[in-house]
Specification:
Length: 303
């Protein structure tokens, strides 16, 4: 008998790729949507409304719930209103799922929540593991509230998993297409001094992690969802240049980024040297732990 996976945020970058990688001979998928859509053979759509805090009856009656929901962190300048939306979209989604579980009395096998390595704040060259303390700044505060809202579902599920996601590499969204904008002229930019650490992960490795969260009932708690080789932003940019045959890597001045992006420049200027200690100890296999090979694969397969 098939098990059921409920996905909130299934139309985002990671959610869409995950839907392509699920084995539909084993699972049926429910997706939460703001508007009612027509069901397919393997996917059922349920409506929810975060503003009204309403969720369609039966939506949460799934074996596993995966929640990616959250407004894009780098989609718009961080005004006060935007900051409130970034936090509320994450906190309210967990709250509404909790409300649905309370009303139905249903207890899923696992609740699997996204978070981000922004939780650690700007930490220079400090090696960060899952036991490292929360950092300072808006992104750290946003991630802390995000995770706190997920933790409120602890009593309503058998297992609770939180994945602190790093820079997701994909040609279909996120940071990589922006880095590749000047690929045609062989020039690539790093940000500021380039000494800040970037912790990244190939989108397929990330999706396989979420699938392992489902099948491995020993997994619970927080995991750093990054590849095991964090590198500096300058090394990151040069690695992409070298793997694709570029000419030069040039700095984008810090003051210019601050002028253009305001506080949102933290997204590219903060340093997060994050190590996936729990995944490595748990023998999670990365298909793409080398940055150059990861980028080549993404471009070759256009994923």
């Amino acid at each position: 008998m098939k098990e059921t996976i409920l996905i909130a945020g299934g139309t985002g970058l990671v959610g869409k790729r995950l839907l392509e990688m699920i084995d539909y001979s084993k699972y049926t998928v429910n997706i939460l949507s703001r508007k009612k859509k027509e069901d397919t053979q393997n996917v059922n759509y349920f409506t929810w409304d975060l503003n009204k805090m309403e969720i369609e009856e039966g939506a949460v009656q799934a074996d596993y719930i995966i929640n990616f929901t959250g407004a894009g962190i780098a989609d718009a300048r961080w005004t006060n209103a935007r900051k409130k939306l970034l936090i509320s979209s994450r906190v309210k989604s967990a709250g509404l799922i909790k409300k649905g579980l309370e009303q139905s009395g249903y207890k899923p096998k696992a609740y699997i929540s996204a978070s981000a390595i922004g939780y650690y704040g700007d930490r220079g060259s400090e090696k960060l593991t899952e036991t490292s303390l929360v950092g300072k700044g808006f992104m750290a505060d946003c991630c802390k509230r995000w995770e706190d809202s997920a933790q409120e579902l602890y009593e309503h599920v058998d297992r609770l998993v939180i994945n602190r996601i790093g820079i997701v590499l994909s040609t279909n969204g996120g940071a990589l297409p922006k880095i590749l904008m000047t690929k045609a002229v062989g020039v690539y930019n790093y940000f500021g001094s380039g000494s800040q650490y970037y912790s990244w992960i190939h989108i397929d490795d990330l999706c396989r992690l979420f699938l392992r969260n489902i099948i491995d009932d020993s997994m619970s708690g927080v995991y750093n969802a990054v590849a095991p080789k964090p590198i500096t932003n300058k090394e990151f940019t040069i690695g992409i240049k070298d793997s694709l045959g570029g000419i030069v890597a040039l700095p984008a001045p810090k003051f210019g980024l601050r002028l253009l992006l305001g506080e949102m420049a933290d997204v590219v200027l903060n340093s997060n040297r994050v190590y996936p200690e729990r995944l490595v100890d748990g023998n999670f296999h990365y298909d793409y732990s080398d940055l150059g090979l990861a980028v080549k694969d993404l471009i070759n397969r256009n994923i």
